[in-house]
Amino acid sequence: MAKKYRTLTPDEFELVLAAIPDRFKAMILTDIETGLRWGELVALRPRHIDFLRRTLTVEETIVEISRKDSPTGERMLFKPYPKDDEPRTLRISQDLLDTLAARIATLGLARGDLLFPSRDVAGGTPLSRATFNTRYWRPAVAEAGIDFPLRMHDLRHAHASWLLAGGADLVAVMERMGHSQIMTTQKYLHTLPDADDKALAAFESIRGRSRRGST
């Protein structure tokens, strides 16, 4: 039997966003709108944003390992996009573009700087997942009053679930998420409480349009 996910709702997301320190709000907004994996998110740079085409391209990831397992002694290793050695490009909203543009301008980030470094400075170093979770994410989730163990990774699940609940095409969501198999994407179907109601409303809307066209 497939595992059922408890999906963060849009209202719950707003509570978490309000509780997150301001310096991380742009990062959280980027994650919920793109569904990026942690390593992809913290590897983003201004050069990955195309403000003219309104797109974001994922072409590298950061892997966090222990120093003893690192061939270089560094805990954060940059790797080319790992799934099929090809980047993926996502459309993003004008609101998110404006948020990222403001961040780039405020911090004076160069095209090759990290968008979401460990400290809000140009040329900053990668943000540690463990540090972020302990110091910022878990306290924000607690303050927001979320009644289940919400992980940062669950924003990725929420992204896919919201898309599908809103009527997005399954294949389009699969490509946006970077899934190699459609079965991986299918597990996000019907994970919001009102997903079935929205599906029925979509059906009735299309059927009603057909009826009006035949009269």
Write the layout of secondary structure elements.
Layout: H1 10-19, H2 25-34, H3 38-42, E1 49-50, E2 55-58, E3 60-64, E4 76-80, E5 88-91, H4 94-107, H5 129-144, H6 154-165, H7 170-177, H8 182-186, H9 195-214
Antiparallel strand pairs: 1-2, 2-5, 3-4
Helix pairs in contact: 1-5, 2-4, 2-6
Number of E-state strands: 5
On the 0 to 100 scale, the average pLDDT is: 83
> Strand order of the main beta sheet, please?
1-2-5
Q: SS-based structural class? A: mainly alpha
Helices, by number, come to 9
Please give the alpha-carbon distance between the first and last residues.
45 Å
Q: Rg to the nearest angstrom?
A: 19 Å
Order of helices and strands: HHHEEEEEHHHHHH
Content of β-strand: 5-15%
- The coarse overall form would be globular
What share of residues is helical?
40-55%
**Would you identify the regions where 5 or more consecutive residues have pLDDT less than 50?**
none
- Specify the biggest β-sheet: 3 strands, antiparallel
Quaternary structure annotation: single chain
Describe the structure.
The chain is mainly alpha-helical and 215 residues long. 47% of the residues lie in helices and 9% in strands. Strands 1-2-5 form a 3-stranded antiparallel beta sheet, with no helix packed on it. Helix 1 crosses helix 5 and helix 2 crosses helix 6. The protein is globular, with a radius of gyration of 19 Å. The protein starts with 9 loop residues before the first helix and ends with a helix. 25% of the residues are buried. The mean pLDDT is 83.
